Structures are given as structure tokens and as C-alpha cells.
Amino acid sequence: MSEKRKLVDVAVAVIVYEDGKFLLAQRPEGKPYAGYWEFPGGKVELGESVYEALVREIQEELGIQVTHAYPWITQIFSYPHALVKLHFYRVTQWQGEPYPHENQAFSWLYSDAVNVAPLLPANGPVLQALSLPVVYGISNAAELGKEGFLVRLESALKSGLKIVQVREKQMTADELASFAADVVSLGKTYGAKVVVNSDVALAAKVGADGVHLTSQQLMQVEVRPDVGLIGASCHNQEELERAAALNLDYVLFGPVLPTLSHPDNPVLGWATFGEVIKDLPMPVYALGGLEPADLVTAWHYGAHGIAMLRSVWKDSD
Questions:
Q1: How many beta carbons lie within 10 A of that of residue 235, not counting itself?
Q2: Largest CA distance in the chain
Q3: Numbered residues of the known binding site for 8-oxo-dGTP
Q4: CATH 3.20.20.70 region(s) of the chain?
Q5: Binding-site residues, please?
Q6: pLDDT category, 3, cuts 50, 70, 90?
Q7: Shortest CA distance to 276 belongs to which of 231, 317, 240, 308?
Q8: What's the CA gap between 136 and 283, in Å, rounded?
Q9: Residue 228 — left, alpha, or beta (φ > 0 → left; ψ -120 to 50 → alpha)?
Q10: How far apart are CA 302 and CA 278, in angstroms?
Q11: Phi and psi at residue 126, to the nearest 5°
């Protein structure tokens, strides 16, 4: 019987500018997978926290001092030489300019224009996650009216919103098809992703980028639908684990705070939110009662970003 391999904790830095540009480094000679490109980092030493290891490794490898870093996603990956648990942190602020202290090459890249190869196998899902915007809008024509919402949507898209979910339970099938087509058209005009809530056929019909599953659909589906970008709504740990097992691209998890529509419903609170999503492999958007100003708080507790039904459509005037 083969001996069970020890799981090695590794701190990994996704060093990223506000515009989404991030750093990849090439592994130097003498290390496993020499010549492969990766996000910089290294093993967590005895007595270190993951964050402490991250700061130390980036100082040693690149000569910069991490000043702001947020827990993000966690991947467990089996390499021939090691079984690793990769704790990815997004590093958003640092002091100094990166310098290759181990004589490794490095490159600043965008997720849609990665032109270095080969990449370490574990990095594929990370690049996909990096392509997801940090602010996620959910349509609200039920309160704003169809035309009123489309006006607000275009304003938000002009201001930089890059992902929208079409979710309008009150519309008839024909009304929803027409509305979804309008949202997709605006999304394409401004380079934003559009997903349709629960309806795979409608998403394909209107040319959406993917589908967002309800929590009930999530627990019933056996395999990941083959329709591009796939997300799901989650309300507990079982649903989050199911989404991870299906290899979904993202989830919405909440409610974190009291909402206008259900002010008396139980909420998670930030501490519970952060504890439950810890160690998940896919990006998690915090949902429920949030404002744009809550984004940094969400990052602090491990969220990829925030999802909003109302605040994102506030009239800028």
C-alpha cells in the first residue's frame, strides 16, 4: 500500500493592479517544473501563518513589501513531486518595484491576453477566476420598470460594470426573452458579461454568456451544464460544497446583511460569511444588503466581490 502523501500548504500571491493587470513569474532552473510560469509564492514554514509566509516569500523572491493582501481562493492540486494546498491571496498594494532575486523572468499580463507558456497546471482555474469582475449586478426591472432599468443599466455599463444577471421572475416568457435580448445587446456593446437566471435554453437563444443556477437547481443537477459561464446561488455550506464539486465558475452567497425586501430574515454577518467560504476553490460574491462601499470589507473576508440587486442601479444624478 502506498504511503499517503502529506498536504503541503503554499502561499500564493496574485499581485494585481486596479486595472486587472497581474504578475506571472517563470520558475528558475533547479526547481521542479523549471521554465513553467506561475503566480509567485512558496511553502508555509512551521510556525507561520499563510499571510506571514506570503509576505516573506514575496520579499525574498521579488524584493517588494506586501502592504495590502486579501484571501481569495484555495486550490488543492496533486503534482508528481507534491500534494499542495494553494492559498491564493490578491495583493493590491505593495512597496517597491518587483526585481527577480532568483534570476527568474516575470511578465505583467491581463487574463484575456496571457501570452507566456507553459503555465503550471494548477493556474488554469485561477486565470478564469481573475477574468470575473468584482462588482456583479442583478437586474431589477420589477421595481424600476423595463425601460427605466435599461436606462440605469446603460449608465452602469458606461461607468464600468462588467457582469449582469438577468433575473425577472415576474415577467412572462415572451417578456423575459425580449428583455434578456436587450440586456445582452447592451452587454455586448460595452464589453460586459450577461448570464440568465435558471434558463439554459433562454441563455442560448439570446446569446448570453452563461447561466446562473438557483440553489434548488444546483442541488439537483448531476453534471455541470455545458453553456459557458456557470454560477449559482448558495445559502449554506452544503450548497457551496456542491458548487465546488461541479466546478462552477462562481457563486453568490448570502444574505450577508439585512435586505430591503426581507429585513427580518436571518443574516450571516461578515464573520460567519468569511468562515464558511474559507478554502473554497471558486470565487464567491457576497450578496445581501450591500453597497459599493462594502467591496473592500468583502475582500477582507475572502470574497471575490459583491453582488447587488438595488444599489448598483442607483441613479448617478
A1: 16
A2: 69
A3: 27, 38-41, 123
A4: 135-313
A5: 27, 38-41, 61, 123
A6: low
A7: 240
A8: 12
A9: left
A10: 7
A11: -70, -45
Q: Where does the chain hold its CATH 3.90.79.10 domain(s)?
A: 7-124
137: cell is 449586478
- The residues pairing with 84 across neighbouring beta strands, listed in sequence order, are 8, 77
User: How high does pLDDT run on average in the chain?
Assistant: 94
Count of positions (residues) in the chain: 317
Q: What is the pLDDT of residues 192-212, one digit of tens each?
A: 999 999 999 999 999 999 999
User: Residue 1: pLDDT band by 50, 70, 90 thresholds?
Assistant: very low
- The answer to whether the CB of 313 falls within 8 A of the CB of 149 is yes
Q: Indicate the annotated binding residues for Mg(2+).
A: 41, 61
The rounded distance, in Å, linking the Cα atoms of 192 and 169 is: 22
Residue 296: its pLDDT value, please? 97
Flag whether the pTM goes above 0.90.
Answer: yes
Question: Hey, how many other C-beta atoms are within 10 angstroms of the C-beta on 27?
Answer: 18
78 forms beta bridges with 83
Q: Which grid coordinates belong to 269? A: 454577518
The four Cα atoms 284, 295, 140, 200 give a dihedral, to 10 degrees, of -20
**CA-CA-CA-CA torsion for 93, 288, 88, 121, nearest 10 degrees?**
-130
Q: Does 3.90.79.10 match the CATH number of domain 7-124? A: yes
**Dihedral angle over CA of 19, 108, 70, 88, nearest 10:** 130
What letters, b where the CB count within 10 A reaches 16 and e where it falls short, cover 154-179?
A: eebbeeebbbbbbbbeebeeeebbeb
Angle subtended at Cα 148 by Cα 142 and Cα 149, rounded to the nearest 5 degrees: 60
- The CATH number of 135-313 is 3.20.20.70
